[in-house]
Amino acid sequence: MKSTLYRAWLQYSPVQDAELREAYRRVLGTIVLEGRQSELLDSAIEELRSGCRSLLDIEPELLLLGNEMPQLASNEGISSGLQLRVQPAADNVQDLEEGDNSAPGKLGPEGFRLQYLGDSLQERVILIGGSEKGLLYGVFHLLRLVAAHEPLTAWNVTEEPVNRLRMINQWDNADGSIERGYAGRSIFYRNGRFTNDLTRVKDYARLLSSVGINAISINNVNVHEIETRFITREYLPQVAQIASVFRKYGITLYLSINFAAPLHIGGVGTSDPLNEDVRRWWRAAADEIYSHIPDFGGFLVKADSEHRPGPFAYGRDHADGANMLAEALEPHGGIVIWRCFVYNCMQDWRDRSTDRAKAAYDHFTPLDGRFMDNVLLQIKNGPMDFQVREPVSPLFGSMKHTNQVLEFQVTQEYTGQQRHVCYLVPQWKDVLDFDTHAGGQGSYVKRIVSGSLHSMKLSGIAAVSNIGDDENWTGHTLAQANLYGYGRLIWNPDLTSEEIAEEWTRQTFGNDEAVIKTVCGMLMKSWPIYESYTSPLGVGWMVTPHTHYGPDVDGYEYSRWGTYHFADRDGIGVDRTAATGTGYTAQYFEPNARRYETLEDCPDELLLFFHHVPYSHRLKSGKTVIQHIYDTHFEGADAAAALLAEWASLEGRVDPAQHAQVAARLAEQAEHAKHWRDVINTYFFRKSGVPDEKGRTIF
Ligand code: GCU
């Protein structure tokens, strides 16, 4: 029996309400499946059966109708039950259901339509998938509705994912470690080998598929020695096994590759993308991969970034590099996802003219239009690196002729490392709802990455995973909400953070209204709380170097990473204006450029990202910068302690194992928040000499 911690949001806890349970049992007791059997349908049925078993304590009767069978007319066949059907590939679904007058249009291949049709004689639910995959998503949706105790009469939805590529990036290494992983070791690898037991991989696939994820890269973007060989005959059979687990849940497998593979393992003597032998090598590598994995997705590439090899070594640019790989994958339908996290990581801190925030834009915008159709550029949400607060990367919208993927970080590298609770969906929503003005007003990031603004061949969203082999997958049980929320949000960016939090809470902890209210409230507060006791006003980076956990205000101040706050006795912040600073603001479209450039218009929460100001500068809130720092840090630490108290009030209302797990993490957070508070406040008091107006203790 899998534990509650392990089951995450697929708890399928028994429905206790007798009336509701009976209603569900009536329609889910018989399942009629029309269509040929397939792996995806098998998964859908398996999930449905185990869901029914666990939620309703029934073993549904399954009736299989082959494609050759006549379709069930509305008034014959089963009187009550669930009818599953896959929309004929090239067809319109006009004959959907005679009893249904809403005449739905054609579903996309990943879409589904779920409908309750009940009258006094019969009660039926029809679930139609745009394809087998759509049907699988529909089954997960149906189970979600049952878990949330949604009444049958409210079951009437047509869903289509807004983004085509919905991807997870594992940063797992073959040795079993996970770069920036905070939830144990890899579920894929151990001691340089693939794990033999794929149970956990399968359950991960279920979790991902249940929220609509359709792509995964299974190894770290920093590709080390063993992983460089994943694309060879030696490892491909094992990669293929993993691919087959994910395939059953509609998830396509990708690999991160080493750009220097031809040099290191190919015996070619170079990795120059314009060298004919190198190109031939990659073509052969692609042929080999596809002979093992016919539906292989493609390559994820970190090149010329943080010492990873790339085309620069040969005087070539990113388009040369990406296109070479794209050419090798193209005959097989594969794609190249090329990351834009490119900057000078050997900067001299004395050099005030170089600005890391500008780097991605400067590198990539001149290449717009040069990438092949099967290349996508993967852009981190902000110009720096997943800080608790950053502006949106100005690359979004600036390349009208290039496919783009947005990259989020679900793993909480800079947001408390899954020891602190930090529900990131509101942060991601801010990014998706940001109006770039690239094509006039309304040019939201979500419209760029969904491909609706510049009609890209392919686009979407990717994120770095937060799971490992900890029993609860994510270290902090509340961090499961980030993985869940990521999937749900990129399926439909118009869902609200609150809706997603509530869905997750109901499925994870049950339908006790007091629990839902408390947990959702805690989640919604958690990002602002974390922000308040860590680095202020968008300045970022006041963390312990390398581990990135805990405060160290000057940890990166004199380093080569291009991450500075420039605090002195008079003031703090980075002048990125065009008038007097690095000129970063000019990378935005108007009116954003002017808004960030102008001190009076720049939003408070990003003030120190764009401007260097005296501590006495007054924020829009009316407070001075220094008083804001003191206030937010005192309040933030108090708020962290209050989270613990709120959670304590739920003892006895949630599963004891879940309760204890979260309580332990919240206790640690409350302590650590005090440490953050005192380090930050003391640092700025000593720098500025300005006392706290409220006379609180600063050391
Ligand atoms: C961050 C992170 C690294 C990672 C890098 C990347 O800098 O700290 O561990 O490799 O991002 O996204 O490539």
Automatic annotation (TrEMBL):
Name of the top EC class for this enzyme: hydrolase
Boundaries of every Alpha glucuronidase N-terminal domain copy: 8-142
Superkingdom field: Bacteria
Record's keyword annotation contains Hydrolase: yes
Chain ranges of the Glycosyl hydrolase family 67 catalytic domain: 147-473
Transcription regulation among keywords: no
Assigned keywords, A-Z: Carbohydrate metabolism, Glycosidase, Hydrolase, Polysaccharide degradation, Xylan degradation
Residues covered by the Glycosyl hydrolase family 67 C-terminal domain: 474-696
InterPro entries documented for this protein: A-glucoronidase_C_sf (IPR037054), GH (IPR017853), Glyco_hydro_67_aGlcAse (IPR011395), Glyco_hydro_67_aGlcAse_N (IPR005154), Glyco_hydro_67_C (IPR011099), Glyco_hydro_67_cat (IPR011100), Hex-like_dom2 (IPR029018)
Catalysis: reaction(s): Hydrolysis of (1->2)-alpha-D-(4-O-methyl)glucuronosyl links in the main chain of hardwood xylans
EC number(s) reported in the record: 3.2.1.131
Subunit structure comment from the entry: Homodimer.
UniProt similarity note: Belongs to the glycosyl hydrolase 67 family.
Protein name as annotated: Xylan alpha-1,2-glucuronidase
